[in-house]
Design a protein that fits this description.
By secondary structure, the chain is α+β, with helices and mostly antiparallel strands. It has five helices and four strands; from the N terminus they run αααβαββαβ. Strands 2-3-1-4 form a four-stranded antiparallel beta sheet, covered by helices on one side. Helix 2 crosses helix 3. The mean pLDDT is about 90.
Amino acid sequence: MLTELEIKILELIQNELPLCERPFEAIASRLRDAGNNVSEEETIEHIKSLYSKKYIRRIGPIFDAAALGYKSALAAVNVAPDDIEKAACLINSYKSVTHNYLRDDDSYNIWFTVTEENEKKIIETLEEIKSKLAVDDYLFLPSEKTYKIKVGFDLKAGRGGACE
């Protein structure tokens, strides 16, 4: 269970990670402005803890993959309700997966994006995920045009969690 401070830190990292020499000091300053008595070092320790608990998988930029010559696709699989957390953690373990989300759908309930150097590599990744999850198939929708680059998650909604 996340504390209010952890939720605030995750929201700042997700939505407003400062591009400056000391971004974690800037985050700590924003937290102090909001009434949280936290230092840069404490903020870093909280972030390390969230990372070790797998609430944070990666902190880094998002590049325009197509402009760099990469290919991306939206993909989906269907897993049993009891296997959703385990499947999401497996999918998230791939560096080429930027995010995944749950949909209330009878055909495919876990949707995710995959970015690789070419379409063949995307299909290899999807085949590997299919095999490891022991699912019958997957949905593969290659990107043709980018409509949205930013995804933000409502951390107070109470769904989802860290991977074991």
